[in-house]
Structures are given as C-alpha cells and as structure tokens.
Amino acid sequence: MIFMYIFETYLDWRQHTALKLSTLPKTLEGIISQEKFEKSRAYSLDKSHFQFLLTFITKLMDCANLVFGVFPWFWKRSGDFLVYLGVNAEDEIVHTVVFLTGVMIWSQITQLPFSLYSTFVIEARHGLNKQTVWLFFWDTIKGIIRSILIGPYVVAPAIVIVQKGGPYLAIYLWSFMFVLSIVMMTIYPALIAPRFNKFTPLPEGELREKIENLASFLGFPLKKLFIVDGSTRSSHSNTDLHSTIMQAYIYGFFKNKRVVLSDTLIQQCGNVDEVVAVIAREFGHWKLNHTMYSFIAAQILTFLQFGGYSLVMNSKDLFQSLGFDSQPVFIGVIIFQHTVKPLQHLVSFGLNLVSRSFEFKADAFAKKLGYAAPLRAGLLKLQGENLLAMNTDPCYSTYYYSHPPLVERLAAIDESAKED
User: Fold this and answer.
1) Residue 233: DSSP 8-state
2) What are phi and psi of 288, to 5 degrees?
C-alpha cells in the first residue's frame, strides 16, 4: 500500500508540473481563450494541491487502521453495543450490520472536513458550487439511510452463502452478486436516483425531435427522455471529462431504454446539434456493445475475486495478523481486499486502457453520423465551462483516465476527418 502511494504520488507530481505550464497545448491555441485557460489552470492547481494533502492523510489513516487495530476495535464495540441492547451478539448477520454501520458513519465523519473544504472552498472559489450547506448534509444523510436500509439485504444472503457455499462458494457468490447488480440497475434509476435529483421529461422541441430521429435511425429502442437537475448541486456538467461522463447517460434493458441529459449540458453547449452529438456518442457505446463488454468484464473480475477470497477465507493466521480472534465473513472480505489492492490497481489500469479505446470509437461513431464539427465544439465548451485541465501529463492520464484527454480526442476526430 505504501509502495502504491509513493508511485501514485510521483504521477501526481508529474501532473502538477504539467498543470503549472503557462501555455496552452498547440492543439488548443486560438480555440481556448487565455482567460478561460487561466481560470482552468488556477482551478486545476487548487485541486492538485488539495489532492496531495488528501491522499497523504487518507493513506496515513489506512495505515493507522491496520497498525492500531481499528477494525477489530469496531467489531468488539459493535458486539458490546448489541449486548447492551439485549441482542444476541453471536448472531453474525446482526453483528456485521451493526459493525458496517459504525464503520460507515465513522468514515463519513473523518471524510466530512475534506468534502466540505472541496465543495464550499475550492468549488465555490471558482464559481462551480451550487449546493447549500443544508443540501450537502441532506444528501449525506440520505446516503447513510440508503446504505442502512439496503445493507442488510446484501449482508445477510452473502453471509449465509459463505457459511453454506462449500466448494462452489465462488459460483454461488457470483450468482448472488449478478442478480443483485441486475436488480440495482433496474431499481436505482427509477426509485433511488429520484430521491437525490429531480428527473423531468424533456420538453417537446427541436432537441427532443432530433434525439428521437437519431434513435429511430439507429434502431435504438428509446422509451423516455429525461432532464436531471444537476445544476442544483454544481455548475459542472460532468464530474470529470477524463473519467466518468455524467452529462448524458443511457439506462434500461432490452426494448426499454431511457436517456438522461443533465440540464447543465444543455446550458453549457447552447447549440442543439452539440447536445445531440454528445448523445450520438452515447448511442455509439450502445451500438458497438461497449456497455455489454464492460459488464461482462466486470462479471469475470467479480468471479475471480470471489474465487481468490474462497482460498483465504479460512486462514486463521490472516485474521489474527490483523487483530481478530474470530473469523467473521465480512471481515474476511475486507482483509482480502487489502491483500489484493496492488493487483486491483493493475486491473484498473488495464480497464482504463480498454475504456479509452471505447471512447475513441464512440467519438468516431458520432463523427461518421455527421457530428464531427458539433462534437468538437461541444467538447471544447464542456472542457472550458468545467474548468478542466488543459495540460495533462501523458503518464498520469494513461494511468488514471478512463477517458482520453481533450487534446487526444480532438486530434483523433481531426485525423479521422482527414482520412475521410
């Protein structure tokens, strides 16, 4: 864990050095204004300084948790709490739920100062925060309540499966998680997400008509079009154009597909064709089966993880080395995740490489539909309005970014245009 921290801090330092460059990449010269570049640079440097501190403290706390036996302490205290309530502390399911609730609340408390600083100092300083303190805490409380309500329905079956799984444990655990993921993918957008954001049907007009026409042309089974009020929390149309794009997404199974647009995407692009270009590339992911490939890869990795866990779950020495005198199921999962963290970093890197390839192909798909110019213009606007980094270190972006940096994406779009 310490080795990975040193390596990733080195990458952070390389990126920080790139962010300090006072000149635009040549690809963006004459396209991005100097004023917008300076705003982006100031915001990125602020975040970079904060990231150094946050990463250091997080790793320090992780080490302290292991060295000082924080998890064994929480396990014992949760048992004492159950005894105080007159509940049987030997019931592993109840004990685990109380333990996980305590750990989650403690995690929220320790992360709270950093979340508050990031939202109400850094984001606010650069005019990107739209949240009130009340909304911030209300979202946090709702998140805790959601976890407490859903947690037992995940914990209880998993513990029973581990206790009775026998030699086919990995298969049973994977089957349970597969069904659970399908259920969550079904109910989350319809029942849970609306508790945090407001989803309203996209009004009739040119934008709706063009999206519906494009869906019909591609054979996309579009059932509903929504706008989500992302602007109530942030003026970002997305959390990070280099990673998880949040300005538009598709969900639903088979012939019941739905498209969700962020209101900030519409506001920042301004031009209808630019918004449609973003949707076109999301349709590209669907048409090229990228979502299905990613889902299958996730299922394979989940199965392999459960297979690895089944090999060490009965290791008494492993539990004792972290201060436990018993072998609770979920504690074994936590320990296993700690032991395979370096491997998880390598897997994440590999998945990022695949994801970057998918993003280039989705851009090319939108370009083939005739959206090269509006997609290019839209990406530039999103980059500028969200104050995202213009200069990126190649090693840093390759390791961390699941989406290619803007400069690389524009170069690919321009190159494919020349070829045509």
Assistant:
1) T
2) -90, 5
CA nearest to 159, candidates 145, 149, 173, 146: 173
Give residue-wise pLDDT tens across range 252-265.
Answer: 666 777 888 888 78
Candidate list 363, 385, 393, 408, residue with the active-site label? 363
* CB-count burial class (<10 Å; 0-12, 13-18, 19+) for 231: middle
Say how far apart CA 109 and CA 113 lie, in whole Å. Answer: 8
Which element (helix H / strand E) includes 263?
helix 263-269
Element (H, E) at 107: helix 92-117
Set 46, 274, 282, 408: catalytic member: 282
- Name the phi and psi angles at 262, rounded to 5: -80, 140
Q: How far is CA 56 from the centre of its chain?
A: 21
The 3-state DSSP class for residue 314 equals coil
Residue bearing the bigger pLDDT, 277 or 223: 277
CA contacts within 13 A on the Cβ side of 367? 22
Asked about 139 being catalytic, the answer comes back as: no
Is there a contact between 108 and 120 (Cβ–Cβ < 8 Å)? Answer: no
Gap between the Cα atoms of 247 and 240, Å rounded: 10
Is 209 a catalytic site residue? no
Q: What is the pTM of this model?
A: 0.79
The residues pairing with 199 across neighbouring beta strands, listed in sequence order, are 228
